[in-house]
Specification:
The protein has 13 helices and no strands. By secondary structure, it is an all-alpha fold. α4 packs antiparallel against α11. The longest helix is centred in the last third of the chain and has 31 residues.
Length: 251
């Protein structure tokens, strides 16, 4: 019986809390470490490094350039798929984590399939619009139930799940940060949806590139600064309050 116990422990499946925490660490926002001073290199790591940056931008740029100059739907959607396949192969050859490239290939592939199926170039952006919509809904729901998503994620990363609910300063910070992310996804939809409905494919592709990685990186940086301000010295406030109260009593 005792010999089997270590095996069972090793094979124990992670709890939902542990799985969610690991997913947060693996995500870009997982690089927003509470208390750490943000830097250009850490921000670059958060968006996947130089390779991740290229993998995020190049497929969309390839579609935009090819479709703008040729108006050939098949060529415009197949080229990004080919580029994404190359990214996967490069990662496999270099023995680096292939999942980011595979996820990118899946998204590009589904987008291309939709555009080819409907014959409408603007449908190449339908998956991205759907993802933005889902993210916006999730963020708004988290605010409605008073569990701001940024607070949940940062709480897991800081091993302080209830911190934003018990500390007013942390609560305000994660609330503001969550609303900022709501603003990002809402702004994307505000600009992209009218262009999609109007069939303005070239403008839609340009807006998607501009409001993609650049805005994401900028907001990630702002989130980092906000979180650092609230989480850098979690034990200092009670001590300061106690010292202040003691001084006032003495006076």
């Amino acid at each position: 019986m005792s010999d089997a116990q270590p095996g069972r422990d090793a094979e124990r499946q992670p709890t939902f809390h542990e799985a969610f925490a690991q997913a947060a660490r693996n995500a870009g926002i997982g690089q927003v470490k509470p208390g750490e001073t943000p830097s250009g290199s850490s921000l670059l790591r958060a968006i996947g490094g130089v390779r991740g940056l290229i993998e995020s931008i190049l497929p969309g740029l390839a579609f935009l350039v090819i479709y703008t100059f040729t108006k050939d739907l098949v060529l415009a959607v197949v080229a990004p798929v080919a580029v994404s396949v190359v990214f996967v192969i490069v990662r496999l050859v270099m023995r680096s984590a292939p999942m980011p490239a595979i996820a990118g290939l899946l998204g590009v592939g589904v987008s291309a399939a939709l555009a080819l199926f409907t014959g409408r170039a603007e449908d190449n952006f339908l998956v991205g619009i759907a993802i933005n919509t889902v993210c916006l809904i999730v963020l708004l729901v988290s605010l409605i139930v008073r569990r701001p998503l940024i607070g949940v994620i940062v709480g897991l990363l800081a091993n302080d799940p209830a911190g934003y609910r018990t500390d007013p300063a942390k609560g305000r910070v994660v609330l503001v940060a969550t609303w900022c992310w709501v603003g990002l996804f809402a702004a994307r939809l505000l600009f992209e949806l009218p262009l999609y409905l109007a069939g303005e494919t070239t403008l839609l592709g340009s807006v998607k590139l501009i409001m993609g990685v650049p805005l994401y990186a900028g907001l990630l940086w702002v989130t980092w600064l906000l979180v650092r301000a609230a989480y850098s010295k979690p034990a200092s406030d009670p001590l300061t309050a106690e010292t202040t109260e003691s001084t006032e009593t003495t006076e």
